[in-house]
């Protein structure tokens, strides 16, 4: 017989708290959708009211407004992601599977870098990029992103590679396989969930970044990223068309939503693997 779970006060309070948290999370999103479907005058006069007629002009204007910045952000994220995954896979395998002098010291330095707040690195990063004459170029975003986003991935990959059974690698070495073959044919295929987890985390952070692009890209709008161009206009001078801004935000989240949802299964799997084996 199936036992019936007794519903107590704690059960009801936990579900009520969960509903409150969900409402607090999704209410701003729903309001942004509501704003995107109304003209700016109606937003100002009746912020919480539903649109009397759907105002699609906001999305038409927003599409032409953010299409270039979205492609800029996607280009920066794609190049950075490729470099990040290469560095993470190689570094994680080196720290997790290979023995050499200074390995623990170098790995401790990696952990120490992770403890430094992001904002403290803005001025040094700016001076480095400025010294390399890369300001107002995409490389001014790509190089700091690669150097900053790799830290979490290295730690996660190191824990995963270190937990792999030695028997697989010993069998490969007996068959004459070298370290490069063991890395490419054994370690990398098994670490697919981990690398996808690192990739999603990095892409979300880079795509949503506003501070560093504002510091490094100060030229014309043709080089600016999605968050940079939209946030700058949202906090612009004079009257701001909030319906246009809301529609721009919704359009800009589509590429990120598609990318993350298509890899969500591997992302959850990678987080579980990293949590259990780390």
TrEMBL record:
One of its GO terms (cellular component) is plasma membrane. It is a multi-pass membrane protein. CDD domains: TM_PBP2. It comes from the Bacteria. InterPro entries: MetI-like, MetI-like_sf. The keyword Transmembrane applies. The keyword Lipid metabolism does not apply. Pfam families: BPD_transp_1. It is found in: Cell membrane. Residues 70-263 form the ABC transmembrane type-1 domain. One of its GO terms (biological process) is transmembrane transport. PANTHER family: ABC TRANSPORTER PERMEASE PROTEIN MG189-RELATED, ABC TRANSPORTER PERMEASE PROTEIN MG189-RELATED-RELATED. Belongs to the binding-protein-dependent transport system permease family. This is Carbohydrate ABC transporter permease.
